[in-house]
């Protein structure tokens, strides 16, 4: 009888994983990381363009994990999907290890009913790793008795969460502070938990010349807070339309966490972090991928509800399934022919709907075709500088002998430090003005930039990203880039250096 009470929760986990497998895919952004992995395995180092060291990924642990796994399997597409499903299974298994979850198991179905949680369990991005880390931390620290071993494990999980994605620091900060405040002698343990993050930050600063990924430099700080909040609220509206159960379940989880804050302070702390994370997401204007940044808060809310031991919370899971069935884009209703050919009026895309016909697991298996493969064998003399906006799959297939200049600056160390001259842009995607002479500089290896301020900035960027690690003056250049490494808005841009937006890419003027 003791074993049979876990039968229903286990079946619920299997059901959630089957839903995730049904909608499994790999998104175009994952191929940015795949290009870095491919170059590393070819011996160029973990870089996006082989002649410069730029961190174009935000998930160091996920990148390293995929690098190791793909070295064994010999490919990345199926490996990323399998790793995502396996880590999602780890997260779910951890959650049902909380006391009394055999009574509350139906709430697990809320994860399978969620479009964001199910779709980003694969996708080739770090979400599944984040699920496993956060779930493990909740379960480890949420135990009634914390042994020193559990304290250390919990601290390590809190410490590596930002290495899955930097802004997860907001989710784990409240429980970390709670651990310090309520545990005698916790400071050494918490300090041990910070070592992985400190080690990575040191490595990134020395190797890449920046403690932050280049994507952060490119995306943040290009619009006023009021505009970002307006766009962020549209991001929540989009979630309610496409994933109608996610935010309501998060809201119920927040209320329950508040009501049980005295008896379950750790769960309340994690929920406070999740709410802070949602608020932060709104403050930066959300994202262009529908629901991606809301999947971890949903996981935390489900963990809170599972831990209550109250049978009534199971109704939340059943209701979430019902709400999901009302959405034609939800994971319970879409087929292998699922396709959404455009994003909404706020520039937010149903990312799986956009790429599923080409990068979905089911269509690839049904049509018996191979997923995209990297371009490695290029003809002599084909190395060149090319500018564009397709920096995911197309860049992966272009191979290492093509230096790609990203118009959105996500992968370009100079353009990311030049303010965009757009007043409205698609979330996270701000086209940069390309200064005169930049492409000639990249082709020739000589500084041919016409703007003196940009030319001076390029001198430091080149030292940080292209010179040997111990080159004279490199440390000083890195220091200058960290504290003053941006230019004023520039003018005099060559029209041939700037790719125009297609009509479908025009930013939504309602987002302001």
Task: Give a structural overview.
This protein is an all-alpha fold and 512 residues long. The chain has two domains: 4-325, no CATH class; 384-501, no CATH class. It contains 23 helices and two strands. The protein has a two-stranded parallel sheet with strand order 1-2. Strand 1 (384-388), helix 20 (393-398) and strand 2 (402-406) form a beta-alpha-beta unit. Helix 8 runs parallel beside helix 16 (295-306) and helix 10 (169-182) runs antiparallel to helix 15. The longest helix has 23 residues, at 186-208. The model is unreliable at 494-512 (pLDDT under 50).
Offer a quick outline of the entry:
With 512 residues, the chain is mainly alpha-helical.
Can you give keywords for this protein?
2 domains; mainly alpha; about 500 residues; disordered C terminus; 23 helices
């Amino acid at each position: 009888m003791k074993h049979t009470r876990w039968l229903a929760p286990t079946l619920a986990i299997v059901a959630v994983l089957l839903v995730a497998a049904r909608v499994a895919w790999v998104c175009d952004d994952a191929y940015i990381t795949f290009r870095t992995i491919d170059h590393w395995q070819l011996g160029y180092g973990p870089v996006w363009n082989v002649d410069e060291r730029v961190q174009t990924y935000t998930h160091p642990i996920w990148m390293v994990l995929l690098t190791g796994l793909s070295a064994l399997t010999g490919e990345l597409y199926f490996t990323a999907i399998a790793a995502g499903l396996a880590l999602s299974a780890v997260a779910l298994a951890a959650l049902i290890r909380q006391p009394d979850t055999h009574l509350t198991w139906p709430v697990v179905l809320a994860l399978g009913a969620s479009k964001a949680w199910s779709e980003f369990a694969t996708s080739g991005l770090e979400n599944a790793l984040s699920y496993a880390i956060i779930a493990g931390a909740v379960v480890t620290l949420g135990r009634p008795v914390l042994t020193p071993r559990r304290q250390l494990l919990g601290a390590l999980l809190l410490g590596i969460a930002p290495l899955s994605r930097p802004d997860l620091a907001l989710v784990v900060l409240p429980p970390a502070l709670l651990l310090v405040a309520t545990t005698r002698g916790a400071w050494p343990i918490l300090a041990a938990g910070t070592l992985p993050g400190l080690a990575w930050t040191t490595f990134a600063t020395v190797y890449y010349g920046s403690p932050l990924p280049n994507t952060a430099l490119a995306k943040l700080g290009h619009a006023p807070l009021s505009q970002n909040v307006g766009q962020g609220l549209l991001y929540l509206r989009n979630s309610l339309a496409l994933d109608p159960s996610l935010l309501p379940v998060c809201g119920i989880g927040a209320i329950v966490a508040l009501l049980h804050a005295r008896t379950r302070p750790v769960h309340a702390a994690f929920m406070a972090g999740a709410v802070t994370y949602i608020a932060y997401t709104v403050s930066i204007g959300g994202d262009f991928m529908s629901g991606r940044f809301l999947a971890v808060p949903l996981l935390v809310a489900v963990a809170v509800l599972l831990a209550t031991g109250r049978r009534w919370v199971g109704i939340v899971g059943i209701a979430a399934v019902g709400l999901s069935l009302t959405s034609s884009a939800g994971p319970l209703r879409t087929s292998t022919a699922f396709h959404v050919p455009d994003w909404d009026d706020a520039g937010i895309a149903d990312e799986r709907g956009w790429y599923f016909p080409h990068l979905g697991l089911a269509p690839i298996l049904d049509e018996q075709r191979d997923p995209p493969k990297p371009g490695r064998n290029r003809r002599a003399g084909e190395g060149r500088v090319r500018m564009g906006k397709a920096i995911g799959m197309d860049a992966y297939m272009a191979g290492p002998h093509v230096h790609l200049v990203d118009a959105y600056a996500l992968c370009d160390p100079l353009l990311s430090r030049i303010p965009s001259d757009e007043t409205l842009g698609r979330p996270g995607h701000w086209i940069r003005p390309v200064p005169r002479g930049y492409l000639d500089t990249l082709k020739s290896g000589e500084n041919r930039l016409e703007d003196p301020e940009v030319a001076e900035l390029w001198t430091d960027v080149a030292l940080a990203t292209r010179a040997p690690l111990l080159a004279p003056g490199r440390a000083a250049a890195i220091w200058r880039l960290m504290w003053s490494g941006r230019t004023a808005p520039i003018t005099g841009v060559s029209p041939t250096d700037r790719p125009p937006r297609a009509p479908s890419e025009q930013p939504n003027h309602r987002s302001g």
